Amino acid sequence: SMYPPAMDREDVPEVAIVGGGIIGLTLALGLNKRGINAKVYEQARSLREIGAGVAFTANAVRCMEQIDPRLVTALRSVATSNGDPNNPNDHLQWVDGFNVDPEHPEDEKLLYKLYAGPRGFEGCHRAHFLDALLKVVPEGVLQFGKRLANVVEQDEEEKVKLEFEDGTVAEADAVIGCDGIKSRVRELMFGSENPVSHPTYTHKIAYRGLIPMDKAVEAVGESKAKNQHMHLGPQAHLLHFPVANQKLMNVVAFAPDPEEWEDSKTFVAPATRRDVEKVFAGWGTTVRSIVSLLPNDLDKWAVFDSSTFPVPCYNKGRICIAGDAAHAAAPHHGAGAGIGVEDALCLSALLDKAASVIQDDKASKSQALKLAFITFNTIRRKRTQWLVQSSHDVCEIYEWNHPKTGSDPDKCFEEIRRRSHKIWYFDYEDMVRESSESFEWRVVI
Ligand code: FAD
Q1: C or N terminus of the chain, fewer CB within 10 Å?
Q2: Is the CB of 217 under 6 A from ligand 1?
Q3: What ipTM did this prediction achieve?
Q4: If we measure between CA atoms, which residue out of 294, 254, 301, 251 comes closest to residue 274?
Q5: Catalytic residue numbers, as ranges
Q6: Which atom of ligand 1 is the closest one to the Cα of 20?
Q7: Is residue 180 lining ligand 1, measured as CB closer than 6 Å?
């Protein structure tokens, strides 16, 4: 960027990011790299990610490279490729975990196989990735123990005020809510009575756990254990992929739940291996072996999303939302974090543009920031809302429940391929170009 790191330059915008999850930190690095003064306010006392895996597509990693190469260094320091590390297997595989030959119940039929591109699927332990990110976030950027209560947008000429639950306040020229599925910023934008302010229950439970890889290899063989597999069946499915340098197998098992989820404060509750065993009782040997290796006590996650009540827009004045705060998707595509990384690239590019416009006196700070957020909403809404919907639909396809595809394997595969490719092969350079042009055009008129 043309700007020096510019803490005290009057004309450089100050941006407050609410939430220090994957997207908040990614965006903070992108802004920092472009000389924009960004601060992250995180409610937790320290960053404690959950003991589970997260995977990124090659495309999401390339977006990280554009945002700030430090992100890729952080990810690569903890990422694990599929298969043999020296000879990565860049295919994703869907297998029938339910209908097995009674003579060979350990054999699963390969249903579909998709090439995801070079290093097309890299998994990591969430806590390890966040630790690696924290190491590269410059000192003074992230503040813990700051739970946002309120945002007050004052006069055009004045800064936006953030009020925290500990009674402290902060000011910024703009506020970006990266505060996740239960976003307070979103609630402040739309009002707590509005259904778009709250995610809804998808009636799916995700059981998540990590299994020592040596145990998994013993149980299901090396090639099954060390490569990503999605095991499909009626009403449920189970995904696993290697993390922690092939030392752990990350497992996510999805099951239906006809009940309501009563506790709106938390989406996590304790569960036992027995619960998961019941779900997969009639399945093939491979799936049951994997389940049998889960720890006795685990967590279950109620899957909520924003597919029923999508927000009408991502911006309001100098406030905007990104990542899960704007578009919380169920995890069936495994793409929620990846698409949030695309948001962070878009915002980094737009705020860089806004900073030049402010410096060149072509618009006031508040005008430029508002226009940047209007542009962000225009560019990002369609694709991100599509992901929310598709994540819901693809679960039905996996479980042979979708009216369009039923249990027809060819139709299911065609849909899975089309949707996966739309996620994996996104032209982010075009997105950046279009964002810049659209922003400039708005500044001129
Ligand atoms: P979050 O990670 O939720 O972070 C929000 C942050 O904001 C938190 O640190 C929170 O403490 C903070 N916060 C909240 N409220 C406040 C407040 N009022 N004040 C201050 N701070 C606040 N995605 C993938 O790309 N690949 C995968 O393989 C994948 N697997 C998944 C598996 C499961 C079972 C689930 C549930 C999701 C999965 N996802 C995956 C989706 C991914 O986890 C999310 O899309 C991603 O974590 C969203 O990041 P975020 O930073 O927007 O929100």
Answers
A1: C
A2: no
A3: 0.98
A4: 294
A5: 208
A6: 9
A7: yes
Q: Is residue 278 part of a domain?
A: yes
Residue-wise pLDDT for 104-163, tens only, equals: 888 999 999 999 888 888 888 888 999 999 999 999 999 999 999 999 998 888 999 999
DSSP conformation letters of 160-176? EEEEETTS-EEEESEEE
For atom 35 of ligand 1, which residue has the closest CA?
Answer: 331
Range of the domain at 436: 14-79+123-199+311-407+422-444
How many angstroms does the Cα of residue 85 sit away from the middle of ligand 1?
28
Domain end position, chosen among 305, 320, 346: 305
Tens-place pLDDT, residues 346-359: 999 999 999 999 99
Atom of ligand 1 minimally distant from the CA of 147: 19
Check pocket membership of 323 for ligand 1, CB cut-off 6 A.
yes
Are both 128 and 89 inside the same structural domain? no
260 shares its domain with 390? no
375 and 431 share one domain: yes
Total domain count for the chain? 2
Residue where one domain finishes, among candidates 272, 305, 338: 305
Both 183 and 273 in one domain: the answer is no
Tell me, in angstroms, the distance from the centre of ligand 1 to residue 180's CA: 5
Which residue minimizes the CA distance to atom 47 of ligand 1? Answer: 337
Q: Encode pLDDT of 82-112 as tens digits.
A: 887 777 888 999 999 999 998 988 899 999 9
Q: Are strands 174-177 and 169-172 parallel, antiparallel or unpaired?
A: unpaired
220 plus 250 within the same structural domain: yes
Higher-confidence position of 209 and 86: 209
> Residue 18, exposed/middle/buried by CB under 10 A (0-12, 13-18, 19+)?
buried
The pLDDT confidence band at residue 224, using thresholds 50, 70 and 90, is very high
Let me know whether 105 and 48 are in one domain: no
Residues 164 and 191 in one domain: yes
- Same domain for 143 and 237, yes or no, is no
- Dihedral pair phi/psi, residue 88, rounded to 5°: -60, 145
Strands 297-305 and 142-143: unpaired
Q: Which residue(s) pair with 123 in the sheet?
A: 55, 80
> Is the minimum distance from the CB of 209 to ligand 1 under 6 angstroms?
no
CA of 181 to the centre of ligand 1 (A): 7
